[in-house]
Amino acid sequence: MSYDYDAIIIGAGTSGLAAGSALQKAGKSYVILDKKKEIGLPVRSTGAVSLEWVNRIGMPTDRSIIASEIHAMSFRTDTGRSISMSFNRAVGLVYNFTEYERYLAEKFAGRLNIKMETRVNSVKDETVFTDNEKITAKYIIMAAGPQSNMGIKLPRDRVLVAYEEIRRLPKRDDYEMILWFSDSAPGGYFWDFADGPDRRKIGVCYYPFNGRVPKDVLAEFTERFPELKGDMLETMAHQIPLTEPAEKVIDGNVMYVGDMVNAVLNTTAGGLQGAFWSGTTAGIAAAANNPLLYQQKWDGEIRPWLMKHHLLHQKLHKNGAKSIGRYMTLAKLMPTSFKKRVFGGL
Ligand SMILES: Cc1cc2nc3c(=O)[nH]c(=O)nc-3n(C[C@H](O)[C@H](O)[C@H](O)COP(=O)(O)OP(=O)(O)OC[C@H]3O[C@@H](n4cnc5c(N)ncnc54)[C@H](O)[C@@H]3O)c2cc1C
């Protein structure tokens, strides 16, 4: 059978762009389809990532896409426990999310072949049906994110609701990254990240057991901290799948990547690295004509890394802020070098 492309990728988020980059580097024919209008918009992520993992899996570090670097971090509970660390080098960075995804689309592996404003309605074997055409490929890479019509809808209690406000605030001299764990954000946390010299990203994510609106939960929490009062410049709301990573990531000629297979580090609710790593690996497997390569790497490396975070997250949040506070006290007893290695690598 002859195909229109070697691979069709559904979704131009981090995972789809990473898959496209791998196919482009391998000289294969592919197209990335996305229903939205523009790459990197609307903003989908705070963009904070661990530099150790960025380097390990080859994510981009071009200066033009970095909003801020993280040298100092603080983890707190609203019951008064805390653990803070500063490093003599950057251990993390916060991407300017829109610029980061544009960079993946245009510069990382050269200009990728992307068709925007193209909604995929269904996939059958090697055929993808959009609103106005049907196209074929040997491999389909599903990179359509959480809660898409292309994937399984997770139950509400497996998905964190997330909401963020970029506020105009003066640069802090102490911490570029602060996380507060609180029983008003079950399963998640409140955050405060540097986003350039006079802006900070203030947000919250949690399992929506309480049925409360994230904007209200954030407002109530931040009112307690005068240093967080600043003009609101932008807002962002979305969902993060926070459950066990999938076991099976391939189904015949179809490979699933990113949020669709819960490639999220549950402790930090960070999904960019899992999206990039799974997307790249699926792209390499498609280029090698061997989807099993992706499943093998998933089983041997990607899933064990995600599972470690999943199990730690379950332990940490077992009794809400109380159990997290207990772990913070234990972490304080670790030798400084070990503590820095653990927290610096998150
Ligand atoms: C508020 C918030 C803050 C976050 N902060 C961080 C952070 O600081 N660090 C971190 O590492 N992670 C963070 N994450 C998680 C991270 O952003 C996601 O895990 C990651 O972006 C997932 O990438 P993806 O490619 O799997 O999916 P997505 O980025 O969701 O991409 C999916 C794409 O598929 C397209 N699509 C869907 N259905 C169709 C269809 N039928 N046809 C065509 N196109 C379709 C969508 O338009 C979308 O562009 C955050 C998430 C949220 C919500």
Mean pLDDT: 92
Task: Assign the CATH topology of the largest domain.
Answer: FAD/NAD(P)-binding domain
The H/E string reads EHEEHEEEEHEEEEEEEEHEEEHHHH
Helix content percent band: 25-40%
Name the CATH superfamily classification of the largest domain: FAD/NAD(P)-binding domain
CATH architecture verdict of the largest domain = 3-Layer(bba) Sandwich
Whole-number total of structural domains: 2
Ligand kinds:
flavin-adenine dinucleotide
Low-confidence stretches: none
What does this entry look like structurally?
By secondary structure, the protein is α/β, with parallel strands linked by helices. The chain has two domains: 201 residues, 3-Layer(bba) Sandwich (FAD/NAD(P)-binding domain); 112 residues, D-Amino Acid Oxidase, subunit A, domain 2 (D-Amino Acid Oxidase, Chain A, domain 2, 2-Layer Sandwich). The chain is 30% helix and 28% strand. It contains eight helices and 18 strands. The strands form three sheets. Strands 1, 2, 8, 9, 10, 11, 17 and 18 form an eight-stranded mixed β-sheet that branches. A seven-stranded mixed β-sheet has the order 6-5-13-14-15-12-16, sandwiched between helices. Strands 3-7-4 form a three-stranded antiparallel β-sheet. The protein is globular and about 65 Å long. The protein starts with a strand and ends with a helix. 45% of the residues are buried. The model has no long low-confidence stretch (mean pLDDT 92).
Please specify the SSE layout and strand pairing:
Layout: E1 5-10, H1 14-25, E2 30-33, E3 48-50, H2 51-57, E4 66-70, E5 72-77, E6 82-86, E7 92-95, H3 97-108, E8 114-115, E9 120-124, E10 127-130, E11 134-142, E12 159-168, E13 177-181, E14 189-194, E15 199-206, H4 214-222, E16 232-241, E17 250-251, E18 254-256, H5 272-287, H6 292-316, H7 320-332, H8 336-344
Parallel strand pairs: 1-2, 1-11, 2-8, 5-13, 11-18
Antiparallel strand pairs: 3-7, 4-7, 5-6, 9-10, 10-11, 12-15, 12-16, 13-14, 14-15, 17-18
Helix pairs in contact: 1-3, 1-5, 5-6
